[in-house]
Design goal:
With 120 residues, this protein is an all-beta fold. The chain has no helices and 11 strands.
Length: 120
């Protein structure tokens, strides 16, 4: 069993900052890339940022220069530092990770989502 537990969402004013965290736990033999996605009501889930186990990152154009993704040394926790937040960043944010839990197959796991609301 693998769990991804997110935290750090909430309400913030435009221009403010939030830091999301996502910790992977359970039976983990290997963990690869981890990422953050977001999904607004009625829209497809979209990539926000992703980081490989080697530290390579990529970002959605809409968040470049404002958001920073990082991982802890154990590579089991991923963070998303969100600065200069805009109302259009308001939505549910999901963490995901590519993990080998049992056997030798890679699977993608998702967290339960955390709400980010940017409003004055």
């Amino acid at each position: 069993q693998v769990q991804l537990v997110e935290s750090g969402g909430g309400l913030v004013q435009p221009g403010g900052s939030l830091r999301l965290s996502c910790a992977a736990s359970g039976t983990i033999f290997s963990i690869g890339a981890m990422g953050w996605y977001r999904q607004a009501p009625g829209k497809q889930r979209e990539l926000v940022a992703r980081i490989t186990s080697g530290g390579r990152t990529n970002y959605a154009d809409s968040v470049k220069g404002r958001f920073t993704i990082s991982r802890d040394n154990a590579l089991t926790t991923v963070y998303l530092q969100m600065n200069s937040l805009k109302p259009e960043d308001t939505t549910v944010y999901y963490c995901n990770a590519d993990i080998v839990s049992g056997g030798s197959m890679w699977n993608t796991y998702w967290g339960q989502g955390t709400q980010v609301t940017v409003s004055s």
